[in-house]
Write a structure and sequence with these properties.
590 residues, alpha/beta, 8-stranded mixed sheet, 7-stranded mixed sheet, 19 helices, globular
Length: 590
């Protein structure tokens, strides 16, 4: 049996029907607007919003409009000053408008499907807040979806609307918890053609790593890894140092069966010696994520207020907002500023002392930008004593691992307000082994060690990390090679299309932003996967990317060439060239 309902984004051919249905409902049926002689109703937002359309077979039966924040205006702006509803100023607020269904379908699943689809589309573009106007006669439909009155009522013509708001995470969780049977029925009966999955991941966070799913997470089809370019994760393109390979292959059976030193004493001593840090300022973990979850669980609670940098590493929003339930604010970076952290804006944001923790990823993932340590140190020195700082230096090895002035680890060892977290996975090509450490004042480090279980890092990982720390010359050369590969990849991607914008940061990746009138990042990523090339759609991380930016990990020369070829093929399909005068049109030109 075929799917009964089909859901998709609108195409130009839908516009006439949308405007005609709007006129029938809002002018003729409800009296919100005066009838138009042409029997069509549109407004100034039609060029900036996105329509989602449901059809039953070939017959259109309903639509909903979503206005993204980068449109620069909302329908609500006609009725409310933004001082009355400050949420309208937020860069991650989306507006859901004019949910409209043909009369004969109003008792069907079309309206709930459109509301859920709008929520999923918004989440896939980094939306965190929703605003809407709910007609008072059908207010229950919106309340059942989890939206709540904002205390503002507006009237247009003969129709009264309640202004409604909601948090995307809360709306999503509420929908999944309250309506599982309905969602499962929709999943099985709806032809879902949006560029976002029908349901979110199990924990609501986009952790990445789709390339390993393609290889096979059951490990039964690992041969696939040889044809897949895993440029969606930031693992090193090069092998570990020969010294690392030697310790891993010397006696692998012994490594596998033997319990490691319970406190990773040898690893701690090596880190202390190589980084010139007191050993009592260190705490190790099985990767930086292990340290983040463990430390934040100890240092923060639901009443804590946290400042994150946006765009920023998604795990921080996940653990602070979804897991701990902190009050989270964001310092928005600006594309016009090349995504760099403005120390004056950061200092102003923290000056009031309202934040318990400020998180700075430096170099930043996903922007690739690096803030000079001296600038950050000056901001921290002037910040209130009650504010703690978490500095993530996972990608600092791509700046210069031997430049001690580039790291804030020495400051963290003496300042009880500062913690520096450093991965041993990325620059040392040990992502599969999972090893990391943090640096904090002795009292803080001791507190976190108390909550560290014995044997926190496996024996293979401990031995590999010690060997890697002892091979600085090898990794210095790999850093220089990565820089050259990154620069060449950026140049070749920039030549693909004049509408494509490439940002080359300082770490092991580049970002590609598609034209505003081109395909979405999600469509581009899916098209590249047809060529076994996996890229990372950055849209769910931040609405500041406007659904158009992908992150591409630097690989070796051969795989970089495959990345460029896949991107070119995707653009050829998704962005057909504008035909010259007299040439036939073969697709939808940009």
């Amino acid at each position: 049996m075929g799917r009964q309902l089909h859901l998709r984004t609108a195409v130009p051919e839908d516009r006439d029907w949308i405007h005609e249905l709007r006129h029938r409902v809002y002018a003729q049926e409800l009296g919100q607007h005066a009838p138009e002689p042409g029997g069509r109703l549109s407004d100034g937002l039609d060029g900036d919003n996105v329509y989602l359309v449901v059809t039953r077979g070939a017959v259109r039966v309903g639509f909903v409009s979503v206005t993204p924040p980068w449109a620069g205006r909302f329908g609500l702006d006609k009725y409310l000053d933004r001082d009355e509803l400050p949420l309208l100023r937020e860069a991650d607020t989306f507006e859901v408008r004019i949910l409209t269904v043909e009369p004969e379908e109003r008792a069907s699943a079309v309206a709930p499907l459109l509301m859920y689809a709008a929520l999923r589309w918004i989440a896939s573009r980094g939306g965190r807040h929703v605003v809407a106007m709910g007609r008072t006669e059908v207010l229950g439909l919106y309340l059942a979806a989890g939206l709540r009155p904002a205390g503002r009522t507006v009237r247009c013509g003969k129709v009264t609307f309640e202004v409604l708001t909601g948090a995307v995470d809360a709306l999503t969780r509420g929908t999944l918890d309250r309506h599982p049977a309905t969602l499962e029925r929709l999943r099985s009966t709806v032809d879902w053609r949006l560029d976002t999955p029908f349901a979110p991941g199990p924990d609501g966070c986009e952790h990445g790593g789709a390339s390993f799913t393609a290889v096979g997470t059951d490990f039964r089809t690992l041969h696939r890894r040889r044809r897949i370019v895993a440029a969606d994760v930031l693992d090193a393109w090069f092998p570990p140092a020969p010294e690392v390979s030697a310790v891993l292959t010397d006696d692998p059976s012994w490594l596998a069966r033997t319990s490691p030193p319970a406190g990773a004493e040898g690893l701690l001593a090596e880190i202390a010696a190589v980084r010139a840090l007191p050993e009592d300022t260190l705490c190790v973990g099985a990767g930086s994520s292990d340290l983040i979850y463990r430390a934040f669980g100890q240092l923060l609670g639901p009443d804590s207020r946290v400042l994150l940098i946006d765009p920023g590493y998604g795990e921080y929003a996940h653990v602070t907002e979804r897991i701990i339930g902190c009050h989270v604010d964001r310092l928005r970076l600006r594309r016009a500023d090349d995504w760099r952290i403005d120390p004056l804006r950061l200092a102003e944001a923290v000056a009031t002392g309202r934040y318990d923790l400020v998180v700075v990823v430096n170099p930043n993932n996903p922007t690739g930008r690096h803030a000079p340590a001296a600038e950050l140190r000056a901001v921290i020195d002037a910040a209130p004593a009650s504010t703690r700082w978490w500095i993530d230096e996972a990608y600092l090895g791509y700046v210069d691992p031997d430049d001690t002035d580039a790291s804030l680890a020495p400051l963290a060892a003496t300042d009880p307000r500062v913690i520096v977290c450093t991965s041993l996975s990325k620059m040392y090509a040990l992502s599969g082994l999972r090893a990391a450490y943090l640096v904090a004042a002795p009292e803080t480090a001791a507190r976190l060690r108390r909550w560290t279980p014995p044997w926190p890092v496996s024996l293979p990982a401990q031995r590999a990390a010690v060997a890697a720390l002892g091979a600085p010359a090898y990794y210095r050369e790999r850093r220089l090679q990565t820089r050259a590969l990154r620069h060449r990849l950026a140049l070749e991607l920039a030549e693909l299309d004049e509408g494509v914008h490439i940002e080359e940061g300082i770490a092991n990746f580049v970002n590609l932003t598609l034209p505003a009138d081109g395909p979405s990042a999600a469509q581009f990523v899916l098209e590249c996967r047809r060529h076994d090339v996996y890229l990372r759609d950055l849209s769910p991380l931040s609405a500041l990317y406007e659904g158009r930016t992908v992150r591409i990990a630097v690989k070796d020369a051969a795989e970089n060439a495959r990345i460029v070829a896949a991107c070119q093929a995707a653009l050829d399909v998704l962005v057909p060239p504008v035909p010259l005068p007299g040439e036939p049109v073969t697709g939808t030109a940009r």
